[in-house]
Amino acid sequence: MIDFDAQHYLGADLPVDITAEEAVLGWAMLDDNCYKKIEKVIKGGDFSCLKNRLVYEGIKQVYTNEGTINLVSLQDHLLQGGKLKLAGGITYLVELQENVNCLSEVDEACNRVKAKAQLRELITCAAAIISNCYTQDEEMGPYKYKENEA
After folding, report:
1. Cα atoms in the Cβ-side hemisphere of radius 13 Å centred on 44
2. Domains and CATH numbers, the chain
3. Per-residue pLDDT of the chain (150 residues; tens, 9 = 90+)
4. Report field, pTM of the whole predicted structure over 0.90
5. How far is the C-alpha of 23 from the C-alpha of 64, rounded, in Å?
């Protein structure tokens, strides 16, 4: 991922779907089989905000260590790593589980999260390229403009 603040540069919000992100996290916390589906599609960097990335990375670590995910283990993991508050606290973790609707929608939510992440990455890359073009002080090399010689 490119380290460039496209949102600041463009002066516009980047595409996100917080509802889908929260649904994915809730499903991952409630059902190990859902988590197995989710991890095939979603990476931590696909989440648009820090707290959701921290929760997802915590879920991933708990599953790797214990082979299952539960609220208490996730809370303990985040607390031990000093990340529970940054991840929204225990209240946020409980809300993620309580707001899960239909488990059959997990694939659609994963696809929405992934699509928004890809759009953010494309926009960030394009904005970084444009910014770089405006700040070039060096010669353009073979791309330097030449008058037609006729």
Report:
1. 11
2. 13-131 (1.10.860.10)
3. 566 677 766 777 888 999 999 999 999 999 999 999 999 999 999 999 999 999 999 999 999 999 999 999 999 999 999 999 999 999 999 999 998 876 568 899 999 999 999 999 998 888 888 887 877 765 555 545 456 554
4. no
5. 21
